[in-house]
Protein 1
Amino acid sequence: MSGLRYVYAVCRPFDAALQSQLTGVAGDPPRTLRHHGLVAVVSHVPEADFTEESLKAHLEDLDWLAATARAHQQVIDALTAVTTPLPLRLATVFRDDSGVRVMMEEREQGFLRTLERLAGRVEWGVKVYVESGGGQQAAAQPAGKPASGRDYLLQRRMRTRAGEDLWQRAEEFAGRLHETLSGRADDARLHTPQNPQLSGAAGRNVLNAAYLVRRDLSEEFVELVDRTKDDAPGIRVELTGPWAAYSFAGDSTGNGEGS
């Protein structure tokens, strides 16, 4: 099949078969391309969609970007189930198989070091939110209008103070949780708290962290997070994963343009 080579990830050679019905970007099934002690997972994509000019135009097409990202992540998820992939950046493309091999040759030592560090490990994400309205609920007053302007101001001050108290408790809770989870992980990363207007998640994000955890200890890690979820009223804990170790791949995920 003609077209450019879209590269999803670089891995160590693995024997397990990917899902038989798995398709990648543009509907083409992924395949492996071996070079020395590395394997690139690639598929064919139409040149008309992945030249530099085409990609610039597609950046304005949110539907196209979303579909491409879903297909990319679908392949990464399938790889994560059978091996330790080192994901490459979305829309990493090369002219042909030779271009992919040149990229692996040039970055071989860095890839091997990173894969050695990540071997047998997955990423778990943990977020802590202050629930929307938590402070107001904590300071709820009996139904009815305030009797005076002074009463109104007093009620507002109480609600504000309750919200500040909840925010402080959430920060303290998040700090303790991060310390505990970091002790059960090989590595941890603190990301910038998410903007609720962009993420769509309810509440204010206090903790946005990633943890690198051995596969064989993941069940214990998940149970530890689950035990904290009801510890603090007005505070919500969310766990996601297991993911490929995006947060711990360093600059090995960079885009090696070669089209």
Protein 2
Amino acid sequence: MNDRTSGPDRAEREQLARLLPAPAERDLPPGRLLHHKDNLMRLIDQDGARATARPRPRLLRPAVLLPAAGLALGGVLLTTLAVTAQDSAPAPSAAGTGAHATAPRGAAVLLDRIASVAEESGERTVTGDQFVYVRTLQTRNEGVFDGPVKLTEPREREVWMAQKAGPVIDVGLIHEDGAYVPIEVGVPDGETPVGQPAGLGRPTYAWLASLPTDPDVLLRRLSTEITRDQDARDTPAEERDRAQDTFDAIGELLRETLMPPRTAAALYKAAARIPGVTVDPDAVDAAGRRGIGVARDDTRAGWRTAWIFDSATLGYLGERSYLTRDTPMGKKGTLINASAVMERAVVDTLREKPTTGKPTTGKPATERPAAGRPTAGKQSTTT
């Protein structure tokens, strides 16, 4: 092994690697695993040396270097790379996202790896008369606004989101706490109903697939969509944090949609260009699954939100938010919400479950249909 991996740097890497879950069963002989590990560590060291002299290059994918049986080992080493890289977050740029405002190198390398994995996932065919089904576990804050956090136990939530290009009034359906709640566009009394087209507030598979895949172009597109939405809600300019808004928007797109592979890869690469994005090395989703997080602090609100990924496969697991300072909501470190994606699928009818292939029956909703912006993910958080 290259002697650059010895000494304090190697010790630190090994210590951080021990924080991660044990690798899955290995089919390769020990000697071959060590050989691949040596090769990967040598590439990591070479990248670290190059990064001090010029902008971060795109690394070779470990998936090319490692056979499929060594995937778990590759995942642990990738996580170690992301955690041990220089990861001190700069102060968020007033200009938000831009060519010279990016995440620290550790987070950027990790997001690049996640993008590579996402791009290899299978493309789906989704027609306009179908529904995207997502089943999650969610723990939510049911405390009063700006008061102490009162978390629920993890609860199962199912959503069926219409895939018509729109505009549509009937956006979808939520099944939660034993009730089925329609997601509908709110219509003020006396006004003509106006449906909502596919877009940032109602991200269909086709709309997501239509987004630009160049990360910089995608960031500009998201910025335009976010600004249009904020203007519609009369949000004062001084209350806007462009970088945080962009991070939150990407997080919402990841949460309760079915993501086209190229779009997912582009979103992760775009996230690497957001200033203040860091690595959260030990994140836990609502299902209790440990992984590695890509996080950003909302300095105004006083909390951190982390997208959680499996440490071995780099697949998306869920999200969590917790306080980064003492606030009226609670002490620093207090969890304020968490989610875990358990299943995603395409179905033909509302209430149909992919495991049974048949619509389910259940108690109709007794509460008023969800109104306003029909984004199921936003309705799940009451912080």
